[in-house]
């Protein structure tokens, strides 16, 4: 209950600070959920990662092709002239038109278990790629969240800067009037002028910062940042630090990707080792040859041949590649160990960052309230001569600083919550229950895994997009090349 009350107070204070910036949601406002949906469906980085996943899926049917036969048809056509000249015959020339056609089927029977291990490696590579895709999805959605909250923060800060500039403008005018009647000194006027000039510069800087964050928002989300709405509190977070670490260890996508990459490296060792074993294949062929100038002359040949090949010495290349693959497998396993430590550390850091941000909000709400009360008191005391112009300016600056800090802390708390979700692997469209059809990597994989021949609609769409002349950018070739 205490956390809920604190959150309610902070929202109320922020609404008072930012005016219309943090107003209640309107019909035209874009919620954070809508921004995440737009990012999920249209972000080029995420779409490119999905295309890369589809390309990786093809490694499995490529590996499975080691079980399948190859079928070839060949033919030849030519002209041949034979000159005959012996002691018993006169010289003569014989013209022929030889033709041949051959149909061959080759079926691998045994290749040292290379196909088995190549398939295992490919399947683990696909699973690793899926983990990488989820990591990309999390990174993109987190970037969208950060961009969304940055725009909200900078809109609020700009509102505060504009209000402060207006207040200091009125303060400067009043100071000049008092100086004109001899109530204060020229020094007081200079102090008011300096503070107003600083407020003008701060407002200009805030406008520039907001323009920059709006540009970042458009780049990540794909739509302009208009009428954003301050999001509600995130509900689906781990309850304790132990829960955070446990979730991260079990479902953080980068750790999953590293694990399957390490398994694929072990499979690769076995695949290369298979090159030292014998291979067996069957080849069936049917061949026909004839002379087109003599239709009665032809020859049919059918054959079925079993071939056994036993490698005796491979010039040391295979053994070198085995050693290389073993070292790579060790490297990949050590990278998993390193990733596990990194995931744990990131989980702890994300948890502590969120707790710190929440604590700061509670303190800053009190600071804003106290600074406002202090300013009102200093202003009353200044009216009776007990305080100077500088005292009033300092009190106004302290209130402004506290307000800006509160807006920044509120932004940091929201971003920290989503960073925590990313650290434990739940910052995905599925876990967020976004109202969008989620991408299913298994669908494309199932379509192509057992495909023996032909194309694929998604691959065709990828190629059509890549080869579309309208998508090509009018880049200039580098000079001197």
Automatic annotation (TrEMBL):
Alphabetized UniProt keyword annotations: Cell outer membrane, Membrane, Signal, Transmembrane, Transmembrane beta strand, Transport
This protein's GO CC annotations: cell outer membrane; efflux pump complex
Region (Disordered): 449-481
Example of a GO MF term: efflux transmembrane transporter activity
Biased amino acid composition, Acidic residues: 457-467
InterPro entries: OMP_efflux (IPR003423), T1SS_OMP_TolC (IPR010130), TolC-like (IPR051906)
Signal peptide: 1-29
Subcellular location: Cell outer membrane
One Pfam match: OEP
Biased composition (Basic and acidic residues): 468-481
Family: Belongs to the outer membrane factor (OMF) (TC 1.B.17) family.
PANTHER family: OUTER MEMBRANE EFFLUX PROTEIN, OUTER MEMBRANE PROTEIN TOLC
Designated name of the protein: Outer membrane protein
Organism of this sequence: Insolitispirillum peregrinum
């Amino acid at each position: 209950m205490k956390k809920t009350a604190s959150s309610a107070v902070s929202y109320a204070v922020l609404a008072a600070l930012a005016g219309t910036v943090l107003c209640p949601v309107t019909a035209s406002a874009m919620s954070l959920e809508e921004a995440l949906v737009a990012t999920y469906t249209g972000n080029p980085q995420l779409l490119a990662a999905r295309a890369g996943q589809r390309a990786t899926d093809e490694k499995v049917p490529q590996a499975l092709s080691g079980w399948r036969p190859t079928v070839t048809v060949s033919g030849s056509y030519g002209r041949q002239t034979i000159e005959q000249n012996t002691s018993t015959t006169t010289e003569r020339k014989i013209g022929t038109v030889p033709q041949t056609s051959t149909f061959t089927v080759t079926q691998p029977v045994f290749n040292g278990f290379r196909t088995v291990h190549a398939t295992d490696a490919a399947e683990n590579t696909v699973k690793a790629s899926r983990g990488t895709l989820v990591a990309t999805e999390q990174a993109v959605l987190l970037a969208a969240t950060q961009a969304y909250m940055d725009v909200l923060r900078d809109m609020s800060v700009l509102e505060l800067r504009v209000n402060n500039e207006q207040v200091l403008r009125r303060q400067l005018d009043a100071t000049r009037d008092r100086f004109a009647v001899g109530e204060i000194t020229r020094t007081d006027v200079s102090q008011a002028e300096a503070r107003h000039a600083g407020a003008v510069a701060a407002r200009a800087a805030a406008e520039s910062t907001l323009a920059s964050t709006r540009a970042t928002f458009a780049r990540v989300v794909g739509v302009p940042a208009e009428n954003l709405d301050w999001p509600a509190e995130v509900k689906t977070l781990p309850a304790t630090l132990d829960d955070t670490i446990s979730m991260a260890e079990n479902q953080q996508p980068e750790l999953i990707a590293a694990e399957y990459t390490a398994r694929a490296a072990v499979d690769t060792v076995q695949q290369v080792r298979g090159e030292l074993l014998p291979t067996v294949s069957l080849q069936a062929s049917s061949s026909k040859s004839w002379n087109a100038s003599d239709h009665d002359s032809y020859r049919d040949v059918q054959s079925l041949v079993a071939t056994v090949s036993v490698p005796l010495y491979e010039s040391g290349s295979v053994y070198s590649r085995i050693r290389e693959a073993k070292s790579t497998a060790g490297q990949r396993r050590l990278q998993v160990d390193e990733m596990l430590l990194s995931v744990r550390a990131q989980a702890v850091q994300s948890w502590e960052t969120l707790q710190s941000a929440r604590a700061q909000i509670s303190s800053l709400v009190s600071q804003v309230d106290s600074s406002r009360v202090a300013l009102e008191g200093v202003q009353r005391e200044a009216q009776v001569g007990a305080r100077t112009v500088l005292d009033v300016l300092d009190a106004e600056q302290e209130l402004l600083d506290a307000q800006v800090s509160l807006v920044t802390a509120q932004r940091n708390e929201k971003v920290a919550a989503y960073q925590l979700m990313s650290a434990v692997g739940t910052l995905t469209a599925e876990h967020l229950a976004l109202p969008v059809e989620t991408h299913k990597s298994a669908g494309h994989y199932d379509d192509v895994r057992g495909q023996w021949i032909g194309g694929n609609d998604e691959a065709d769409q990828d190629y059509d997009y890549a080869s579309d002349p309208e998508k090509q950018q009018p880049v200039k070739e580098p000079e001197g090349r």
